[in-house]
Amino acid sequence: MLKNITRKTLALAALALAFGNANAGLIGSIEHQYGSAAGKIATASTTGGCDTLNTNSITVRDGSNCGQRFVDLFDFTALNMSSVEKFVLTLNFASNNGVLEWWAARPADSTVHGSASNSLLNTTGSTAISQSFTFTSSLDVFNPIVNNDKFYLWFVENGPLSQNFTLNSAKLEVYGTAVPEPTSLALLAAAGLGLVAVRRKGSKRA
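RE: above sequence
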C-alpha cells in the first residue's frame, strides 16, 4: 500500500512539474542598448534621418524635413513559445530640454504600418527615467506582431513644438506560454505511465 502511494505521489509530482513549465509567464526578453560604442546598436533613423547617434545613446529628433523616422526591430522568433499574452516595453530616456510633450511610443508590425494608438512618454527633466508600457491583445497590431514574431518600435511627436530626447535603451519582455522542453515532455510521459501502472495494480488487487 505504501509503495503504491509513493509511486502515485511521484507520478503526480512529475505531472505538476511538466505542466508547470507550460504555465503562462515571462518567456523571454530582448534588450537594446543604443549608441556607437562596442556592443551598442543604431537604428535606421540614424543613417537617413534627423536622429543623432551618440556613444551610449540616440538623440531622437522631430522635424518636418526629417527622412527616415525612428524605427527599431525586436525579433523574438528564437523564443520557444506556443502563445503570447502580452508585451511589456521598458524605455530608458531623458528629455534634452526639460520638457517632453506629445512624444509617444508607437508599436508597429512593420516599418510602414504602426498602431493607431500612442503611449505618451512621461515629461521629464534631464535625468534619465525608466517607463514601462504593457500591450495586450486589445492592441490593434497585436495579432500581426505575434504572427510574424516581430515587434517594431516607432516614436511619434504630434505637438506644435519641435523637441528631442535621448534614448538610452529599450527592453521588450514577452509573456505567454512556453513550449515544454524535451525534459518536461519526458517527465509528462513518465508520469502518465506511472499513473497507469498504479491504477493497474490497484485494479488487480481489487
